[in-house]
Every structure is written in C-alpha cells, then in structure tokens.
Amino acid sequence: MNRLLEAELIYGRLLDIAEPHLIARYNKALAGFGLKPTALSRFSIDMTGFSPEIAEEIGDQDYLDPNRVNRRFVVLTPDQENLPVVHTSFSNTAGLMHEFFDANRRAINAVTIKDALYGEIEDSVSIVESIEDLLSINDVTFRVLSAEDVLGKAAELRQLIDRLKSEADAWRDDDMLNRMVELVQLTGDIRQNALVPDQLVFRHEAFWANHFGGVYIFLDGKTTTVICDPSAPGFRRSRPWQVSYISSAEPERIFEFLTRTNRIELPRASWVEGSGLFAHRADMILRNLIRQADPNADLDKADAIWIQTWLHRNADLVARDGTYPFLMEMIRTVSATGEIRMTGIPAERRFLLVRALADHPDQWLTNRLISQMIPADFVSRFVFDKQGFYVAYENYSEAFRNHVVSTLTNTYLRDKKTFRKRLYGIGEDDHA
Could you give the CA distance from residue 52 to residue 14 in angstroms, rounded to a whole number? Predict the structure, then answer.
C-alpha cells in the first residue's frame, strides 16, 4: 500500500494534528472510549477523527468502529467537515456526519475553541448478526460528550443561571456565585454561545454495509430492496412480506430494479457522446485483457500504436471475450441512432452502458453498485467503491499496480470534480 500512500490514493486529504492541546483532547476522547492514549506527537485524522497512524499504533483498524456498528467519532475542529471518511462500515457515514456538522454548526464552532466533541453514532442494534439487524436501523442518534466536559459544565452553568433568576435570595449564595464565575471562565457566556448541539437524531437512508460480503439496502417509500450474497444470514427470511431480495449474482434482476426505480440513465446520445463513458470503459476493458494476458506488461508505455499492434496480435483473445468489440459497436450505434435499446443485450453487459441518474439521492450508492458489476473499470471502482478497489489492488501484479496508480494520478486526481461531472454527470458531492 506504500505506493497508494505516496500518491494519496489512500488516506489522502487528511488533517494533520500536531498541536499538543489537540493531541491532549484526542487522548481524553480515547480514554472516554476505554482506549490507551497515543504516544504520537503527530498524526492525521479524517472527518470522523479516525487516524491511520493511531490505528497502526494500537494495532486495530476498527478502534473507532469496534463492532462495525455504532460508529465512534472525535471532532477536534470544525475543519473536519471538509475531510473524507477513509474507514467505515457504512457508506452513509460521511452523509450522517455532514448532517451533524450542518445542523450543529454553531455549537461545534463554539465548543471546539476550548474542547473536543466525541461519542458514538448510535444505531438501534449493538451488533450485526443478520440482515434483520441492518433492516432494523431506521434512525441514528449522536451521543455526544466533550473531552474537557465543556458540555457538562455548560449544562451546570445553565442550571445555576436559572436558579439565580428564579430564587429570590440565590444572589446571596457566595459559593454558587463563585462556581458560576469558575464555570464561565471555561464556557464563556452561554447566552451568546450555543454550546449544546441542536439536533442529534438523523434518518438512516439507503446505504451499503460491509457485512456479509457487502449488503445494499435501497428504500422506495414503504418498499425496501436488499441486494447481497444469498448466503447472508436472514436473506429472504427477514421481513419477507415487506422486503424484496435480489442476489448479487443476478445481474438481470439488479438491472431491472435500477431501471424500474428510475435510478439509472439509459444510454442516449444526449449524455453518452459528451461524457466519453463508453470509450473510457472500453479502454478499461482492453487494459484488463492485456493484464490478464501479460501481468507484467508495462501499460504506461502503451501508446496508440502499441495498443493497435496488441489488438492485431491478440484478435482471438479479444473476440472470445467479446466485451471490447461490443463497446465499440455500442459507440457506433448510439452515434448513428441516438440511443441503445437494451432488448437482447446480455444482462451483465448492460451495466457497461449506464450510469446513475445524477439527480437521484442514491446516485453515489447506485454508481457504487454499477462499478461493482464492472470490476475491470478500476477508475470507477476507486471513485465509488474504494473498499472494493483496495481488495482488487492487492491481487494486481506490481507492473499493473504501477499503471493503476499512474492512471488515477493523471486522470481522476488531476481534477476530480471535472472528471466526475464529465463521466458520471455528478457535480458537487460530499463523498470524495
């Protein structure tokens, strides 16, 4: 993974923490979780406060996610709102954190001047043992504490202020007045600074969870659809009267679901030609074929002439696989007719021709599912399904790893927003 680290393709865009007072606050949060303090004098954190350096020091990548549910968080600064989430068991962790920051901005800004917030994103279950446990999660509650107990002291000061206002002789209580002075030195004027978060309960919408090999849960009104490996405990047994189950090995049913629920853009020239998505996927398919034929091929030196020569020499291999010629035909078809009809196209190839509908709230989740159905497209996998990308990366040859890193560095990382907008129709986002 060192190559990914150097290219900032893993643990990139994190916030550097080196100030002693911030490290002290972080350690108090760790103590609140029952963990040992870090001995590091510098480390980096993501939006949730997860630190890869501390995870390595502790020897536990899940130190903020011990049961892969009820995720812990540490907020040292409001600047964390603009960071990615690099380690999570739920695809919507970043979305929930953004909602928390947005709903409690004043309190977070005020508290983090003198303190750190920490706690858990509490679900309705403490451990996930079956699909039913995932289905039972409807809302989450942020249970919030503070390292220096500023929140507790603000609550105490509020009570004393109320007593001073309501009790006629309270002003004669010197001990109470001295305590109020002591508290206000830490909290400031709580009449001006809102220290207590305003909203702590948020809706748990559609998501992907990394349990049982990966589970997608989509919501459409009163209808819930689960897509996962059918060997997952509870598959077709948890709430069968309410939940529709689709095996991850059934591409035709998955595609029908995405089409019927209007989550995807079907191939039309209006977006296909301007996006270059078909050409991108054809290129990804071809490079994967080259990798399979020769894992040590230096694809960074593969210019147009090299590629054309390889195609001529390996025409039988390309024809047997059939995917590259298929995409070339689809490019010609959409150019000539303006659209592609899915009738007669094999289910597994349909995903090559679509992308998530950009204005659907599940666009990122849908693109994640599509990228999983096209594993050869490592660029899309990196954009939407980093966990799947990292697993696949481990099985690449050293030569292909070099090529993957250089490709991502020279394309996606160069201008993420423009790249996502052109290929996938996605503008601003909270995910990457």
Answer: 10
Q: Contact at 8 Å (CB) between 310 and 302?
A: yes
Which is nearest to 235 in space by CA: 138, 134, 127? 134
Q: How far is CA 165 from the centre of its chain?
A: 48
Q: In this structure, are 234 and 266 located in the same domain?
A: no
* CA dist., res. 258 & res. 357, Å (int): 10
Tell me whether residue 184 is in a domain: no
Helix, strand, coil percentages for the chain (3-state, nearest 5): 50, 10, 40
Amino acid at 151: L
Residues 6+ apart with CB under 8 A from 109: 78
Q: What is the domain count for the chain?
A: 3
What Rg value do the Cα atoms of the chain yield, rounded? 26
Question: What CA–CA distance (Å, rounded) separates 129 from 189?
Answer: 47
Same domain, 286 and 371: yes
Q: What was the pLDDT predicted at 155?
A: 66
- C-beta of residue 281 within 8 angstroms of C-beta of residue 374: yes
pTM of the predicted structure, to 2 decimals = 0.88
Does residue 348 lie within any of the structural domains? yes
Dihedral, 175, 180, 186, 187 alpha carbons, nearest 10: 160
Q: Left if phi > 0, otherwise alpha if psi is -120 to 50, otherwise beta: which for 213?
A: left
Q: Does 223 score more than 80 pLDDT?
A: yes
Residue 173 CA to residue 196 CA, distance in Å, equals 27
Residue 317's CB is within 10 A of a number of other CB atoms, namely 15
Q: Are residues 297 and 384 in the same domain?
A: yes
Is the pLDDT reported for residue 249 higher than 70? Answer: yes
> Residue 102's domain spans which residues?
2-149+195-203
Q: Encode pLDDT of 123-157 as tens digits.
A: 889 899 999 999 999 889 888 888 877 776 766 66
